[in-house]
Amino acid sequence: QVQLVESGGGLVQTGGSLRLSCTASGRTSSSYNMGWFRQAPGKEREFVARISRLGGSTYYADSVKGRFTISRDNAKNTVYLQMNSLKPEDTAVYYCNSDRQQIDWGQGTQVTVSS
Question: Which helix (H) or strand (E) is 46 found in, with range?
Fold first, then answer.
């Protein structure tokens, strides 16, 4: 069974950057295509970015394309999300999971972007 722990969130000003990490324990996360998702207050959880098992393919939501970069280090069982040019509308709790959301959700990490 895989357990996910997200970290790296915080408070940042508009235009700032953050790097999120998601570390998996248990069964290796390299068995999965992995994704980042986010949930803003009062809204449903939404897809942000996806990366293939070996990292050769990535895909992004239009709202973050060109600003966010997903990557992974399978040796460390860790998936990253580099977030640049942050906007207030990026404020949300960020979660990682397999792209098909097959794993129990972790606690997420809060990202707050001030205007």
Answer: strand 46-51
The phi-psi region of residue 67 (left if phi > 0; otherwise alpha if psi is between -120 and 50; otherwise beta) is: alpha
Q: State the DSSP code for 1.
A: -
**Where does residue 90 rank: exposed (0-12), middle (13-18), buried (19+ CB within 10 A)?**
buried
Residue 2 pLDDT level (bands cut at 50, 70, 90): confident
Q: How far apart are CA 30 and CA 75, in angstroms?
A: 9
CB 111 within 8 A of CB 8: no
- pLDDT of residue 52 exceeding 80: yes
CA 46 vs. chain centroid, Å, equals 11
